[in-house]
TrEMBL record:
<protein>
    <recommendedName>
        <fullName>Seipin</fullName>
    </recommendedName>
</protein>
<feature type="region of interest" description="Disordered">
    <location>
        <begin position="288"/>
        <end position="339"/>
    </location>
</feature>
<keyword id="KW-0256">Endoplasmic reticulum</keyword>
<feature type="transmembrane region" description="Helical">
    <location>
        <begin position="49"/>
        <end position="69"/>
    </location>
</feature>
<dbReference type="GO" id="GO:0005789">
    <property type="term" value="C:endoplasmic reticulum membrane"/>
</dbReference>
<dbReference type="Pfam" id="PF06775">
    <property type="entry name" value="Seipin"/>
</dbReference>
<keyword id="KW-0472">Membrane</keyword>
<keyword id="KW-0812">Transmembrane</keyword>
<dbReference type="GO" id="GO:0006629">
    <property type="term" value="P:lipid metabolic process"/>
</dbReference>
<dbReference type="InterPro" id="IPR009617">
    <property type="entry name" value="Seipin"/>
</dbReference>
<feature type="transmembrane region" description="Helical">
    <location>
        <begin position="247"/>
        <end position="268"/>
    </location>
</feature>
<keyword id="KW-0443">Lipid metabolism</keyword>
<dbReference type="GO" id="GO:0140042">
    <property type="term" value="P:lipid droplet formation"/>
</dbReference>
<keyword id="KW-1133">Transmembrane helix</keyword>
Length: 339
């Protein structure tokens, strides 16, 4: 080494320093990796537990949403028919007094013995929506009454209401402009004039009774001149408080409700998890069982059989005649020595 020139000595020392630094860095990385393995395992457990809690919270939130709110609007299509008196025919003039008023019978459930689509405890606004053509008989019909009657499965009358209805008046200029526009669009693209809609609120705060549930309803238009193209009955839920927030702002409610439910689940399960982790967990107990330590008061595993020990025991004990003879001789020798 003493005969080497200074540049070679410098390169040698630099390579030695670089090798030592790389070795030290490798050892540090290996130590950090070994130390990070328990931390990574713990983080994996925590992540899996949090993911499970979020999934359960999401399922609980969806269940609460569809249980508490249900459908905001329940629409029932009705078909009006003339209810004739005994022996009368109702396909004659509309002014015939022998014909009754247009009436419709609607079932709230496929079977009268089953519960309808309404949610118990929820307030509803019940209204009847009519599609009326802008015809002369409807304009001359004036004010008429709409009657609603709910009945139970035994056809016992329940909640009822009757409200007046009137087709709004339109001046002749507006009607003329609408007719010309409808005729022009009808010739060009085949567009027909839309009928006028009339909505009448019959019940403002209807709550389904869980003891006397409604299985159907009757709708009656107390007018023989009114012409109706289509009619529906709407049950619109009157949401308030938490239900209103969940329905009107679903994204914000989900972002706030799911973490809140997950936090409650964590609070409920935290004592059990802390007790499990503080006691060593299940993996340590399994490792102790495999090592031969069954734990405090646990069943001990059976020891493994050693063939050499088994042969020695057979030779000394009752494994054969030779073993018994050797044992008797040894006993006789011990007795002679004592004497």
């Amino acid at each position: 080494v003493g005969g080497e020139d200074p540049p070679q000595q410098q390169r040698f020392w630099l390579s030695q320093l670089l090798s030592d630094w790389l070795t030290s860095l490798t050892n540090r990385c290996a130590a950090a990796a070994r130390a990070a393995v328990p931390v990574a395992a713990w983080l994996a457990k925590v992540g899996s537990f949090l993911g499970t809690a979020l999934l359960l919270a999401s399922a609980i939130y969806l269940l609460l949403y569809y249980t508490l709110i249900g459908e905001e609007v329940t629409v029932l299509h009705i078909r009006l028919r003339l209810q004739a008196q005994t022996g009368a025919r109702c396909y004659g003039p509309a002014e015939d007094l022998a014909c009754g008023f247009p009436v419709a019978n609607v079932s709230l459930a496929p079977n009268r013995d089953e519960v309808g689509e309404l949610v118990y405890g929820q307030a509803y606004r019940v209204s009847v929506r009519l599609w009326l053509p802008d015809s002369r008989p409807n304009r001359l019909a004036g004010m008429f009454l709409i009657r609603l009657q709910l009945y139970s499965p035994g056809f016992e009358p329940g909640t009822s209401a009757i409200r007046p209805a009137l087709l709004p008046h339109r001046p002749w200029a507006a009607r003329l402009f609408g007719d010309l526009t409808a005729a022009a669009f009808g010739l060009l693209i085949g567009w027909d004039a839309e009928p006028r809609q009339l909505s009448v609120d019959l019940l403002d705060d209807y709550v389904e009774n869980p003891f006397i549930r409604s299985s159907g309803l009757l709708v009656e238009l107390q007018s023989r001149r009114v012409q109706v193209q289509r009619a529906v009955v709407e049950f619109r839920a009157r949401l308030s408080g938490l239900k209103y927030m969940m329905y009107s702002y679903p994204l914000i409610s989900a972002c706030l409700g799911i973490p809140a439910i997950a936090w409650l689940l964590l609070l409920v399960s935290a004592p059990v998890l802390l007790r499990r982790w503080l006691s060593g967990g299940g993996e340590e107990a399994d490792a102790d069982w495999l090592d031969g330590d069954g734990g405090d008061g646990g069943p001990q595993p059976m020891p493994l059989l050693d063939p050499t020990r088994h042969e020695a025991a057979a030779a000394y004990g009752g494994g054969g005649g030779g073993g018994g003879e050797a044992r008797r001789r040894r006993a006789d020798g011990d007795g002679d020595g004592c004497n």
